[in-house]
Amino acid sequence: MQKGLFAGAALIAALAATAAEAKWLRAETDNFIIYSEGSEKSLRDFAVTLQRFDATLRFRFRVPSGADGARLPIYLLARSEEVARLHSRPGSSVAGFYSPDSDGSFAVSNRENYGDEMGTPDSQQTLFHEYGHHFMKRYVTAAFPAWFVEGFAEYYSTVDFDKQGKALIGKPARRRAYGLIELPKLPVEKLLFERSGALKSGEQVEVFYGRGWLLTHMLYNDPARAGQLSAYLTAINAGTDPKQAATDAFGDLAQLDKDLNRYVGHPLSYRPTLEPIPVATNIRIAPLSAAEDALLPLRLERMSADEGSERMTKVRDNLKKLAVTYPGDAGVWFELASAEWALDKEGRDLAAVRAAIDKALAIKADHVRANVLLARLNAFELDAKGDYSAGAWRSVRQPLQLANRTDPDDPIPLYAFYQSFIDQRVRPIDIAVEGLGRAFALAPENVQVRISYAFALANKGDFDPAIKLAQSIAFDPHGSGGEGLLGQLEAIRDLSKAKSDAAAAE
Questions:
Q1: To which H or E segment does residue 74 belong?
Q2: Would you say residue 215 lies in a domain?
Q3: pTM across the whole model
Q4: Could you give the number of structural domains in the chain?
Q5: Are the beta carbons of 375 and 416 closer than 8 angstroms?
Q6: Beta strand extents in 141-219 (DSSP E only)
Q7: CATH at 239
Q8: 200 pLDDT exceeds 70?
C-alpha cells in the first residue's frame, strides 16, 4: 500500500463523528473479521456475499474450505471519500484498498451501493480485486507473472451471485473500458515480458491492468485457446524461459496480439456455476464495547499512517486522550504504545512506549501484540547497548513465548521469535526456523515473513523452494524488491554449488 501525508486531524474528526452517530459492529466468519457501522442486516448480507466469494475461489482452485487461523480483518466505512482520506488520497473516490501489513494484513472498503450497468457495486469490485490478490498469495503456491496477477484479480473482481447463490464469473470489467479503447494499446509482447515497474505513467498502468484483464478473460473463455493458460503457467513455474513458455503455449505472439485486439470488440461471455455456491451460516455479529468503539477509528488511522509522520503524531496525541477516558482498557494502551513506537527516533519516547505496554499488560498479561511489542522494545534497547549475551536476550524471547502460547495461530509472535536471533546476530535455532515456517503457512502474503523464510530455506540448502518464494515476490506488480532478493538467492545457490563441485573434484 502506498501511503502519503495529509492532515490527519480532519480524518480523525470525521471518523469519530461517524462513530458517535452509529456504533461499530463486528462480524466473524470462517475467513474474515468484518467491522462496520450501519445495520446488522446489511453487515450480515455483506458477510454472506464475501464468504460466498471466498468459497467461489476455493471451488475454482480446489482449495479446501474451512476456518483460517489468521482471518483477514475488513473495515467498512460509510463512503468512498472516507476511504480515500484514509488512504492518503483526499479528494478522490477510492473504493477500497488492501494492505499486506507487516503486523497483519487488512482491507478497507465502503458501504456505498452504486454500481456499474451490470449491478455490481464499485466497492465490491475493488474489494474482490484486492481479496483476489490476498487469496492468490495465501493459497496458491505457484509464481505468476505480473500481467496475470492483475488480470486474475480483475477477472474475478466482477463475480456476482444470482438469487439462487450461483456465481456469475467473467462479467465485463467496465471500469477498464477507457484504458482499452481510448488509450494506446500495449502490445502483447510488452504485456507478457515487461516488468510492471517499468510503467511510468498512470495511463500506462491503466492500460496494463486493462490488457491484463482482457488477456486473462480471453484465455479463460475462448474455446480456441482452452488449456493454453494452464500450460503457460505450468511452464513458467517449471523454470522455462518466459518467452519460450509463451510461444509454446500461445503460438505466434503476433497472432495473439491480433486476437486480443479483436476480442475487445466482441460481447464478452460470462458463465454461472452449475450449482449455488455454498456458504457457511455460522456468522456471528456483536457490537463493540464502548472502549473498542471509540478506539477503532484511531486503530485504523494508526495502521494506515506512515511511520514517523506528522499524521502518526496526531494519532498518538488522540490516543493519549482516549487513554484518559478508558484507563482500564488494554487495547487502548497497546494502540498508544504502538503509535509512540511508530514515530521516528527523534520524536519517539521509549519510556512512554514501555509505560503504555506495562499498562496494557497489567490489565491483560497475555495480550498477544503487547507482548510482541515488549519484545521488540527490549531487543531495540539491547542492540543500542551492544549487549548480545544469551542471558540478556531471554528478556526478548519470554514475552514472545507467552504470546505464542496464548494464540498459536498468530504468525507475528512466531516471526518475531525467529527475528530475535537475527537481531542478536546468532544463528536461529531449529525451533525458531520451524516457527518461521509455521508463520509463513499462516500468512504467506506477509512479504517480510516470506523473505525471511526464503533465506532460512537457502541457509539450509533448500534452494529450489527458496527461489520459488523469491520468484513470487519478483513477479509482484506492486513492487516488493523481489528482483534483488531473487538475484541474491540465485547467487547463494550458485556459490554453494561451486563449492560442492570443487570439493567433489579434490
A1: strand 72-77
A2: yes
A3: 0.86
A4: 3
A5: yes
A6: 160-161, 167-169
A7: 1.10.390
A8: no
